[in-house]
């Protein structure tokens, strides 16, 4: 793919920029500004050249006097509306991941899986041009959707982003040198299968963060990272964001909220040979034995791929191959449209 106009993050609108219009009834429309382009609604026409040259967040009027607010879409606007193959990491969790995993400008980050690429876009922004993002995805269609989404968002495939198709466990060891990675971000069904490769890839003190959807995955992930003895004690959390309605004296929480998305587990890689001082468990009624653990997580440490853990078993709705191919075409169409919309293309 050739390079496109990279949408500006500030300044007056120029051709090739994306613009998000909010119409009279709050209806949203997002499109790319084209030479001779027009936005048609059932009540009138707005020429793209009316928007070009205006500062971000300006009001424009169409041929029938209707007013529209023109804004540059934010990363979160793009992510929430882009084509999806797999379920995405929501902005509230992406923000926490960037913060808890301490993703810094210039960091060398490994990510698996890529899914629709939502988290990848947040990670790319956090590492900046000096950083490197190495993403691994076992399903080719998902990798294609994610890359098309990145092209649609940033105008070209980011130069510091490498996407490899394959299982992290198999692909990572030959892709990157041991101890050369600052951060590992795992959003996948069974992160506990990646404990060893993660430990090998990370530099001492490096952070691993896992995003899992269910309590059973959370428990298995924490126990396997802890059992490996290669990491600090894992920390687990979830993030709830409740919107508020604030209008005059009617100030209260919103009636609806996204109550659950997933859990985050973080740990840091220990230096070679370091043995973590064990935290003595207090004997109490709530104490548990190894047999109790085995009954809770029966295949833990079995050393072979478990049949127990499937997308369906943890409640992930999987898409048929036909639906996925449709998503790939839809993501690529948007990326291609961006290329055609390029001024002078
Ligand atoms: C929920 S999706 C990731 C969503 C992504 N973080 C986003 O925000 O768009 C999980 C992905 O992990 C991939 N996956 C699962 N296990 C994997 C593994 N061992 N190696 C690489 N990819 C894996 C799946 O194919 C799926 O695309």
UniProtKB/TrEMBL annotation:
InterPro entries tied to this protein: SAM-dependent_MTases_sf, TRM61_C, tRNA_MeTrfase_Gcd14
Any one GO BP annotation for this protein: tRNA methylation
Any Pfam family: GCD14
PANTHER family cross-referenced by the UniProt entry: TRNA (ADENINE(58)-N(1))-METHYLTRANSFERASE (PTHR12133), TRNA (ADENINE(58)-N(1))-METHYLTRANSFERASE, MITOCHONDRIAL (PTHR12133:SF1)
UniProt xrefs under CDD domains: AdoMet_MTases
Basic and acidic residues bias (residue ranges): 335-345
Superkingdom of source: Bacteria
Keywords: Methyltransferase, S-adenosyl-L-methionine, Transferase, tRNA processing
Protein name in the entry: tRNA (Adenine-N1)-methyltransferase
Gene Ontology molecular functions: tRNA (adenine(58)-N1)-methyltransferase activity
């Amino acid at each position: 793919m050739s390079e496109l106009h990279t949408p500006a993050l500030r300044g007056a609108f120029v051709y090739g920029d994306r613009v998000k219009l909010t119409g009279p009834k709050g209806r949203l429309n997002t499109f790319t500004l084209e030479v001779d382009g027009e936005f048609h609604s059932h009540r009138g026409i707005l020429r793209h050249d009316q928007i070009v040259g205006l500062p971000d967040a300006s009001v424009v009027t169409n041929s029938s006097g209707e007013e529209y607010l023109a804004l540059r879409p934010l990363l979160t606007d793009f992510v929430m509306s882009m084509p999806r193959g797999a379920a995405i990491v929501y902005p509230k969790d992406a923000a926490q991941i960037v913060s808890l995993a301490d993703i810094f400008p210039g960091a060398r980050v490994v990510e698996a899986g890529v899914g629709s690429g939502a988290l990848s876009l947040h990670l790319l922004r956090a590492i900046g041009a000096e950083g490197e993002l190495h993403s691994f995805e076992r399903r080719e269609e998902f990798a294609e959707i994610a890359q098309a989404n990145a092209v649609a968002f940033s105008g070209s495939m980011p130069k510091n982003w490498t996407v490899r198709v394959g299982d992290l466990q198999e692909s990572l060891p030959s892709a990157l040198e041991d101890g050369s990675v600052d951060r590992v971000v795992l959003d996948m069904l069974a992160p506990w299968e990646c404990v060893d490769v993660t430990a090998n890839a990370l530099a001492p003190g490096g952070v691993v963060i896992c995003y899992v959807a269910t309590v059973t995955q959370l428990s298995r992930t924490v126990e396997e990272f802890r059992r490996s003895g290669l990491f600090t004690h894992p920390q687990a959390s979830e993030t709830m964001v409740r919107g508020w309605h604030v209008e005059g004296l009617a100030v209260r929480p919103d009636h609806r909220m996204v109550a659950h998305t997933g859990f985050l587990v973080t740990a840091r890689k220990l230096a070679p040979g370091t043995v973590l001082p064990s935290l003595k468990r207090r004997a109490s009624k709530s104490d548990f034995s190894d047999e109790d653990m085995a009954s809770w997580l029966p295949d833990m440490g079995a050393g072979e791929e478990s049949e127990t853990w499937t997308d369906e078993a943890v409640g992930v709705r999987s898409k048929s191959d036909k639906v996925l191919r449709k998503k790939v075409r839809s993501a690529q169409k948007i990326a291609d449209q961006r290329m055609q919309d390029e001024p002078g293309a």
